[in-house]
Q: What sequence folds into this?
């Protein structure tokens, strides 16, 4: 399922279009693509909670993708600060993997 989101993943990678913390989605279509990608991680949190996937393996393979998302202040501010109540499982996943949300840089 991650392959479906390669376009967003590539934009978030270092050197990608959204890797600069002041860049990010520019229109409703791009925001929807990002939200779909973040939703996939929320599903992963549910699977981890139910012990249907291995946490250590997941962390070693996918934690850098979460780091790439939260490295972007535009995304953190819009989704994980202003809309934090809609992204509870995403935030739980960050906590589960000991990934600190850089809220102090956004506020």
A:
């Amino acid at each position: 399922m991650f392959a479906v989101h390669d376009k967003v993943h590539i934009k978030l990678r270092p050197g990608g279009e959204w890797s600069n913390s002041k860049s990010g989605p520019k229109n409703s279509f791009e925001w929807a693509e990002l939200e779909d990608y973040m939703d996939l991680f929320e599903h992963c949190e549910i699977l981890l909670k139910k012990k249907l996937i291995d946490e250590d393996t997941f962390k070693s393979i996918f934690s850098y993708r979460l780091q790439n998302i939260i490295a972007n202040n535009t995304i953190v501010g819009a989704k994980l600060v202003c809309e934090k109540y809609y992204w509870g499982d995403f935030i739980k996943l960050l906590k589960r993997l000991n990934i600190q949300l850089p809220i102090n840089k956004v506020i």
